[in-house]
Amino acid sequence: MEGFMSIDIFIIILATGVRLATPFLLAALGEMFVQRSGVYNLGVEGIMMMGAFAGFFATLQQGSPLLGIIVSLAIGALMGLIMAFVSVTFKAEQGISGIGLYMFGWGLSGLLFRLYVGGVTSIDGLKPIAIPMLSDIPLIGQVLFNHNVLVYTAFLLVPLSGIVLYKTSWGLNIRAVGNKPEAADTLGVSVVKIRYQCLIVGGMLAALAGAFLTIGQANMYADNITAGRGFIAIALVYFGRWSPWGILLGSLLFSMADSFQSMVQVLGINFPYELAVILPYMVTIIALAISYGRVWAPAALGKPFERGTRG
Amino acid sequence: MVEKIKQLEMSGITKRFPGVLSNNRVNIQLEAGEVLAILGENGAGKTTLMNILYGLYQPDAGEILLNGKQVRINSPSEAIELGIGMVHQHFMLVPTLTVCENVILGLSKKFFVDLKTAAKRIKEITDTYGLAINPEAYVWQLSVGEQQRVEIIKALYRGANLLILDEPTAVLTPQESNELILLLKNMAQQGNSIILISHKLNEVMAISDRVTVLRDGVVCANVKTQETTQEELAKLMVGREMAPCRREGNYSPGKIVLELQQVHAKGDKGSEALAGVSLQIRENEILGIAGVSGNGQKELAEVIAGLRKLSSGNISLNGKDSTNMSPAEIIEQGLGYIPEDRIHVGTIPSFSIWENLILKDHHRLPFAKYSLLQNRKIMSHSSSQVEKYGIKTPDLETPTARLSGGNIQRVVLAREITRNPVALVAAYPTRGLDIGATEYLHSKLLEARSNGVGILLISEDLEELTSICDNIAVLYEGKIMKVMPVEEADERTMGLLMAGIA
Amino acid sequence: MKKKVLSLILAALTMLAFTGCAAKPAAETAPQKTDGEKIRIALVLPATVDDMAWGQSMVEGLKAVQKSMGEDKVEVAISEKLGNAVDAGAAIRQYATQGYEIIFAHGSQYQSVLNDIAKDFPKTTFAYGTGFATQPNIFAYDPQAQEGGYLLGILAAKMTKSGVVGIVGPVESGDAVKYNYGVQQGVAKGKADVQTRIAYTGSFNDIVGAGNLAKTQMSAGADIITGSSQQAVGAVRAIGETKGNYWLSTDMDQSSIAPDHVLASQVYHWEKVVNKIIDLRKQGTLGGQHLTLTLADGTIEFKYNEKLADKVPAEVKAAVETAKQEIISGKLKVELPKK
């Protein structure tokens, strides 16, 4: 028990929390764009797996994590395109298509790994980059400014997504399409085009989240490496009420709780481990239950768009 | 921007939908500064015609000429570029966006949205026409009338000088309607053209310069408004002489079929909506409930139908205490119910017509035997109902939601009346219906009355009440102000009672 | 119509992707009539054949048997990624129907499905582990993980500089608890004031989670870390990126992942268990025995990473060796956690 909650431990918990929040942040921000446009993509987990594998494989082959990031973005875009094709063009039921995409991503990533890699193989992933000056600030420096490039990217994407969503023409179109597609349609905003774009962006960010797991954290690949993180990301979109700052809050809440419970276990504090490991989920569910209200959801979420036919 | 629209001509427009010929060689013309009303009953093809002009549909045949030149309008954005704007009956606004955002939606081609410049231009427009609106307000915060103004601004912002309005007053209060009429006249005077789609004769008479009457997809008249009368237009629209329904025969009520004693009930917000209502309805009687809506009408209908709990009091139906009965038991006791929300409460919108027609009797003979639906019996029953009640539908399998409002009301009416109720509660049964449908409904209610049914008719329309009711009660703030024979119910007395002055 | 076709294509693609990796080994060995000489063995795994842990150690055991008896004498079929006991049950039943004589269901979670299936195939031998409950045609195998854990614990206590030994556990159950308890006793025996800190991820296969937990262990002071289950490779990798920290592996020798960080291993030699089951079956015993893996019978091996062996002082090696001999001779009994 000695020294528990000393300042050092506190910094470790916070810094770890920031790192753990990254994949959730990336995937959830992507899914936020998708849902804002009126589609829900339950295939995030599958896209993450593909992104994780693609990033890992490219890094393994070429020794460049940067190339890994690029390849995983491309694969993510492709997976998003598949989802768009099925759920927007063919108007398939979105829940089922998403689950299909998840299973497809899982199966395919496992298959490719077995065919082209096989066995536990390590890579040299992204290294932390301490930002000059900023990382020397006591406390905050270690918590915020000594991470790898994807961590910075994820956190920078929060305000950036906010600007895109609320200040740009594209963001305006997205919000309109997700809330009242028929209105957007009558004003010449292509519902189909916007939804395609959002699914592709969402796919890219989900894949990036996956790549973070392989080239930013584990530095290796294993089957089912995402272990449900994609589904948590989807829950965080609801938690965050489809806003970047809400998602940031949710991701941090979940990850800080996770980081905290790990430390509690490691320090041998007398606390049942079963409760410790579910702590992040519990905190998130409770926060969600207290704050949840349907009114925030994009009104056209889950509804395929069809022009009316009544005369 | 392209040249201003001086003249529009649509000629020979034909549009077919599965099972329906919606427009059949329709011709219309319009000059700048003119207000053209397109008059027709629900389903006559007015909206289809305008959707073609706005690029939402492509005609199967015919052409559109603007300033004498033929144009093809493939999409709403092309229509907008040509200077055509449309205000839909159901507003095409995104409630979660601000007025300003709604107005510039689809226009902003730059990366960042420039809301400031847009707000300035909106102000110019609103100043020109005297429209007051706050560009920063969210649409969901606005009243229906204000939302309509946003729609008009949206069209003007896009440079529209031909404005199509689809049933613009259907959702407005009388005061808002008057404001709109003034606005449209003002816009026409400034050189804009306006097409008004409507089935309301009085507004057509009030605004338009010319009227084109559509019936079953065909133009059946094109007249100057000044040279016609409301009666003539009604006749043209419906296609036959209109004889307003009047109750006939003497008032000879039988025994009491529905009785309310000191009924108290709470509204949705928890405040007292019914404050001691006592009423009696007898066989062969139509009792009208007059009053401004929101004074407990909805709750009154619901407590009788068993859909809302009473806080205290008693209701008896057909001689039995029905106060605490479930809706199913009340139906069993012989209550018919035409609810205010005919689409969502009166029917299950996604169900087919035959399903909705047997909704209350699907579990018993002749429609079900040993819990199995008897398809042949159901279909023959349904098709005879469709014929008898004149329900216009491609087939029995069509989802009820696809029908027009009048036809949905016919489905509800067919189901409720065929069940031979002892008493019938009808809440705003003609709201939103065109003249033909209204007339039909009145005749059916009167027919039920002469068959002995006791009817409670809730309505805001005094003309409706005085023409078919035997007695009229005025409801004000959850209390019955007075019950009187129809002969005593003149407009002045009623108006005072409805305002709560006894 | 279009939609249906599309769903079918997607479904087919998905199936393809899955069968491609999940049941490929099974497909390679299509049913063929045994000539009486050849013995057919099937293996069902919760994770993968190359997990560098529990699953792979058994696969290598089977391969060793195949090699020693001859490829023509032993046929091996494997289905992996069957963490869900119901899916695994389907695979097991299929193998039994196809006439495989010995079926290994390599996980304690398969016990109950095996009980159901074994009744229908009384001539087939089934085996599962970790476990002890048996049936007339079911063997239960049971590595005494605490024995190697004890030795690794002694090593850890004597090698740690920070005085903290960390455990990255999966889920607090069965094997992991046994192993961790052994490590704890060993550490306590090795040096009185060294702490053992146990933390669990709550999952068996979350390698990222295991890596993160290992990082937390190290940041909180542990410099020697160990842990069981297939997710452990994530922790090994995380330690491999640091300086001055060591990992102790169990189930398999994991030194290939981090050659400069894996100090020693507890290795299971499944080939001996497999051979024993084959022999018993030949003698007419189809099941009913509880087979343990122990240091004494050589099915558990304690092994140093040769590359790092000279980093371990001789007196430490001697202490470990003494304890090992005491366990083998039965003089020392490593305790099991009381239920």
Features:
heterotrimer; A: 311 residues; mainly alpha; ABC transporter involved in vitamin B12 uptake, BtuC; two-stranded antiparallel ribbon; 2 strands; 1% strand; C: 339 residues; alpha/beta; Rossmann fold; 6-stranded mixed beta sheet; 12 strands; 44% helix; globular
Q: If you consult CATH, what is the topology of the largest domain in chain C?
A: Rossmann fold
What's the multimeric state?
heterotrimer
CATH architecture of the largest domain in chain C: 3-Layer(aba) Sandwich
Specify the helix fraction band of chain A: over 70%
Q: Which stretches of chain C of 5+ consecutive residues score pLDDT under 50?
A: 19-34
Overall pLDDT of chain C: 88
Put the structure in a nutshell:
The complex is a heterotrimer of chains A (311), B (502) and C (339). Chain A has 311 residues and is mainly α.
Any chance you could write out the topology, listing elements then pairs?
The complex is a heterotrimer of chains A (311), B (502) and C (339).
Chain A: H1 7-36, H2 44-62, H3 65-89, H4 94-116, E1 129-130, H5 140-144, E2 146-147, H6 149-167, H7 169-179, H8 181-186, H9 191-218, H10 229-239, H11 244-266, H12 273-291
Antiparallel strand pairs in A: 1-2
Chain B: E1 7-17, E2 20-31, E3 35-39, H1 46-53, E4 61-66, E5 69-71, H2 76-82, E6 84-87, H3 99-104, H4 115-129, H5 144-157, E7 162-166, H6 174-189, E8 193-198, H7 201-207, E9 210-215, E10 218-224, H8 230-238, E11 256-266, E12 272-282, E13 285-290, H9 297-305, E14 312-317, E15 320-321, H10 327-332, E16 335-338, H11 353-357, E17 368-369, E18 372-373, H12 375-388, H13 405-418, E19 423-427, H14 435-450, E20 454-458, H15 462-468, E21 471-476, E22 479-485, H16 491-498
Parallel strand pairs in B: 3-8, 3-9, 6-7, 7-8, 13-20, 13-21, 16-19, 19-20
Antiparallel strand pairs in B: 1-2, 1-4, 4-5, 9-10, 11-12, 11-14, 14-15, 17-18, 21-22
Helix pairs in contact in B: 13-14
Chain C: H1 2-22, H2 24-28, E1 39-44, H3 54-69, E2 74-79, H4 85-97, E3 102-105, H5 111-120, E4 125-129, E5 138-143, H6 145-159, E6 164-169, H7 174-190, E7 195-200, H8 207-219, E8 224-226, H9 232-240, E9 246-249, E10 262-268, H10 270-282, E11 290-293, E12 300-304, H11 314-329
Parallel strand pairs in C: 1-2, 1-3, 3-4, 4-5, 5-11, 6-7, 6-8, 8-9, 9-10
Antiparallel strand pairs in C: 10-12
